Amino acid sequence: NSFCTLLGPSSRRSPNPSPMQGGGEEYFAPPEEIDPDASARFATFCARLRRLEKAGRKALTELAEMADDIGASMTCKEMVAGVVLRCIMTSGGNRQLCYWYLLDKLAKDKPETFGYVFSLHVLDIASDAMPWDDPALFPKLESLVEHWDGVFPRDIVDRIYLSRKERQWAAKHPLEAAKMRDEEEKKWAEVEKQYTEEEGLDLYEQPCLAYMQGRCPWGEVCTQFHPEGLEGTLPPETRLGDWRCPGCGSINRHFRRRCFSCPREKPQYRKDASVRTQEEVLLSTPDADALAALRQRWGYNTADEDEALQYWQRRFEHEPPTAFVEARRNAYLGQILPAVRKAVAEAASRAPQAGDRRPREAVSSAGVPPRAPAKAHRGETAGAPTAAVAASAPTGPVKAKLPDVPNAPAPERVLFICQKVIERGAHDAHFAGYLYLLCKALPEAVKDVKWSSSRAAEDSLALVECAKRAFGAWSAWKAARDGGAGGAAMHPATPFFSDLRRYVAALPLAGNHREEVMTMCDTVAKA
User: Does 396 score more than 80 pLDDT?
Assistant: First the structure.
């Protein structure tokens, strides 16, 4: 393996180039051939170089003769110089000093070949690799550099001395050296930025197609541009350059400068995320309604790992995972699957028969009836219920045993029951039982001295959400009863709000939450 790549093609330029050369011809010229004998001699030299331990006159003379016998071409000289410099960079202590002595002998014996090649790179190697901080090697290195005046150009020797002083000063003042290094890096970063963004031509970039399709396997280490908030906005069948209209959402081909269905132009993807339009800010900001819907449905934000871990840790403090799995299995077998089968059967029974000219209701291809209004919460109905909802509503109190609640302190029981009501909704079979147990746990929670302010604030927010669910179910029941649809004589939420009204003043609620809960209690009491 040749070490010419380490030194670069500039080192193969002869000390006295021909006046006929315009410069750069060495990059296009075919490389010089190295005969097998020269390669074998170079391998022998490298093996002998690795065994060098003491800088004796006999050993250095032997190595210098072996290096000179490898070949007379500049390529062979560059190979020798490359391996010597590599040994200097990868070794330390007395071993590195031996390699410095070998470099000195080669440069002095053959200044027109080895001296020229070493002069191209000795400054960089000496500035970084010379162990000036070693007190045992310092006088020997200083004596070595003093005799380089006639070997290397004067400016190179002076810059080596200057680099030694800079390294010694940096060792004594590490904080100031780090500060100067940071300032220099910032300065050069600004200069590079001015060159790359001259006249604003480099402010925009073509985005990564795989990222826009939502399937980039590289993630953060991808070298292509990932515009924030636009991941997965393009379908998988799009090609490079295709774009989505930010106005109407149409997919346009790469050659269109304007959307084919609206007057919007093709968007530009700016690399500087600090300067963004209002649409880009909205695209990169989570929707508050979507986060509220996620927390309402699951109890936490499913996209936030920390929030999910906190939720399930709090959930499994007093309820083992096996009990949760068993409850979900019973819910699927007893409620969810029968409800789906019942909905399919009702949709099939409402389908028009032969000769029936009644208008057919909107039924999906799977036979599922139309969904409830989008504004209606799960388990609640906004406004007066329809005939179908009123018919499917329970006509009397749910007769079931009380649900299982962990035997924990009263504040933790309050939080557990509120979470169950929020998750399962008002149509759950244990809704009335949860409200009954909540009425029993509230007085104990209010009297609990260990109820910390932070935990009380968290429990109070869950209690307010639970009260909203109960009030929504009570409002639907009252609307159905006033509309003549019948129903139970008393809703389970009525005694709950009656008991909750007594402890509103003692609960650690905020001003607006306290007024909201008090308004719900007064509404139920007046009805």
Answer: no
